[in-house]
Amino acid sequence: MSKVALIGDKTSVLGFQALGFDAYPVTEPREARNIWSEVKDSNYTVIMVTEEIYREIEDLLIEFADKFTPAVLIIPPAKGGQGVGFQRMKKIVEKAVGMDILSEEGKG
Q: What is the CA radius of gyration of the chain?
């Protein structure tokens, strides 16, 4: 069975526990660095982090950039996001297909 973990502020991640996910709430983003070292070796298939956490541990995620699992997803926090996850996905798609197909420019 696939395991899913979430790291983020309490408001953003605790609701996911009801869905069976493992939640790792933090009060300060820097706490995520210690949690990440525990979570990354726990056989999670998917690890979701809020935007603030992603910014804090981005340097630690490099080792997983070319690995199939765990998939690291960036989610907006409960208080609203700044599109960090979308921008990251946009760069990945652009690298994969060689052009920016997700841009709003040129549509219409």
A: 15
Q: Does the model's pTM come out above 0.85?
A: no
Positions in the chain whose pLDDT score sits under 70: 105-108
Virtual CA dihedral for 37, 61, 53, 6, nearest 10 degrees? -70
- On whether the CB atoms of residues 39 and 61 are closer than 8 A, the answer is no
How far is CA 55 from each of CA 3, 44, 50, 102, 103, rounded to the nearest angstrom?
23, 20, 9, 22, 23
Return the SS3 of 93. helix
Q: What is the DSSP string of 32-75?
A: HHHHHHHHTTS--SEEEEEHHHHHHHGGGGGGGTT-SSSEEEEE
β-strands 22-26, 71-75: how paired?
Answer: unpaired
